[in-house]
Amino acid sequence: VGWSGGRREERTRRMASAFVGSIPAVGGARGVRGGVSRRGNVCGVERRSRSKVEMLSVVHEPMTLVEKILAKGAKRPSVKPGENIWVDVDVLMTHDVCGPGTIGVFKREFGFDAKVFDREKIVIIPDHYIFTADERANRNVDILREFCTEQDIKYFYDIKDLSDFKANPDYKGVCHVALAQEGHTRPGEILFGTDSHTCNAGAFGQFATGIGNTDAGFVMGTGKLLVKVPATMRFTFNGEMPDYLLAKDMILQTIGDIGVAGATYRAMEFGGDVMQQLSMEERMTLCNMAIEAGGKNGLIAADDTTFKYLEGKTDKPYEVFHSDENAALYSSKTYDITKLEPVVAKPHSPDNLDLARNCRDIKTDRVYIGSCTGGKTEDFIAAARVLQGQKVSVPTFLVPATQKVYDDVQTVRVNGETLAKIFADAGCIDPTSPSCAACLGGPKDTFARLNEPEVCVSTTNRNFPGRMGSKEGSVFLASPYTAAASAITGYVTDPREVYDFDKTTRHSSEMLREN
Predict the structure, then answer these.
(1) How far is 321 from 188, CA to CA, in rounded Å?
(2) What is the pLDDT of residues 280-307, one digit of tens each?
(3) I need a surface site. Which of 154, 295, 485, 515 has the fewest CB within 10 A?
(4) In the predicted model, is pLDDT for residue 28 greater than 50?
(5) 491 DSSP 8-state letter
(6) Long-range contacts: 103-109, Cβ < 8 Å, 24+?
(7) pLDDT, tens digit, for every residue of 231-285?
């Protein structure tokens, strides 16, 4: 591991010339790609739409990816870390926990008859405390429904029948995964959400971060927000990724190295050879936990993997930016991915890092596979790979993030067997209704909630006391491989102990998937 930087270096190199030009229209293109000068101070941005590709030229000082996105949102040629700027908001997301409070602020400040700034730029997703008999939790969803009807909000993913989530065609599940699946995450845009893991969407090359109810209420009425431009910490992963590693190991390693306050109010930009080896879902895992390092946001520059994922999900044009090579950084850290091993975050902090193989003496009472971090389709494929032909020795809870993930668990095959069959044969508890479930604890009747002082190996994102329920509980954060291996043995287990991974080639979940 190499580390450089520590304090931001001031650069004064300025632009010497400007190039203004365009390229011929190209039919059928969608979104934006490529086209950004990495060395000079002339930034060529390729804007893609369904009807044309147009090259725009922007004059600026060298900037990082996050600075370019925020400069675009502020309608300025350039911005610098530490500046307070007003930006236009492309998407505002809220959910059942923070939505009622946000709505209350909006009505109080703008009037009970006020209209939102744009009914098509607000996305409301019930997902946290859904499948519960708790009347206050249920009332939160009612408040969302009433507001969306009143405001004619286009993107409200409602749920009415709690007895059968499949009877609710509009219901999606966990907001951060649903945002991506429904095409609300696009390169070059600014997305705010009333949830700290909104940084998940940075995987698409956009600025995405969590905000509080007061800020969200202001955005709801104006479509704008005052933000401070964050400095950039770059994390570069190079080499051929081993078969036994997942993106969760990468982000836990990073957080363990810099600490839960190591990136406070800074952008965590991930790059290097390994990014090309990661699917969009793995990239989401990486960016999702930037907040656990204190980061303002996490992000990865968009590329062909991004564009392919977005095909058929959105028809809105978007712009792609890349950091200039000579842009100033707060710090830079480089990893040789071949040197990393499966890791866990021990209780009670995401930065309490240890190698999974060092924790064999820790017996686990249960295993939890789910959440915005570890409940995506590829997370379940990874778990199924290790569990196939094996038996779990502790209760193993499966919580698909969204309806689509739930459907994939029933239909996607690995080695000829559906994920559902693999899990059933292994003795796992049947997959439950898609939601955040026990990741945030919730009411006492929440599925898989820790109501006793138990030890849980989990693919979720936080392990502070009480996070999953009982304050006396102990949560070990792990990858789906490590979680599945621990379910088999009954103790915290390096997945290499129970599964013979390929020594030469990485078999990603995308490669393992059989539809």
Answers:
(1) 7
(2) 999 999 999 999 999 999 999 999 999 9
(3) 515
(4) no
(5) B
(6) 103/143, 103/144, 103/147, 103/217, 103/220, 104/213, 104/217, 105/213, 105/214, 105/216, 105/217, 105/218, 105/220, 106/217, 106/220, 106/221, 108/217, 109/217, 109/218, 109/221
(7) 999 999 999 999 999 999 999 999 999 999 999 999 999 999 999 999 999 999 9
Cα–Cα dist 74/512, whole Å:
43
**Could you please report the per-residue DSSP string of 14-68?**
-------------TT--S------SSSSEEEEEEE-SS-EEEEEEE-S---HHHH
Length of the chain in residues, anyone?
515
Q: 86 pairs with which residues across the strands?
A: 226
Task: Tell me the three state secondary structure of residue 322.
Answer: coil
Q: Which of 483, 498, 496, 499 is nearest to 368 (CA)?
A: 483
Closest by CA to 367, choosing from 348, 391, 388, 350, is 391
Cβ atoms of 426 and 390 within 8 Å: the answer is: yes
Token digits of residue 365: 């009472």
Q: What share of the chain is helix, strand, coil (3-state, %, to 5)?
A: 30, 20, 45
Closest by CA to 426, choosing from 485, 480, 371, is 485
Model pTM score = 0.90
Q: What pLDDT does residue 511 have? A: 87
Cβ atoms within 10 Å of 46's Cβ, excluding its own: 18
Neighbours of 224 (CB within 10 A): 15
Question: Which amino acid appears at position 476 of this protein?
Answer: F
Lookup: tokens for 45 = 């941005």
Q: To 10 degrees, the CA torsion angle through 352, 356, 360, 362?
A: 40
Strand, coil or helix: 84: strand
> Minimal CA–CA distance to 360: which of 242, 468, 476, 479?
476
Taking the CA atoms of residue 357, residue 358, residue 359 and residue 361 in that order, the dihedral angle to the nearest 10 degrees is 100
Q: How many of the other CB atoms lie within 10 Å of CB of 49?
A: 18
Least Cα distance to 11 among 326, 332, 333, 322 occurs for: 326
Torsion sign over Cα 2, 342, 307, 183: negative
Distance CA 515, CA 512 (A): 10
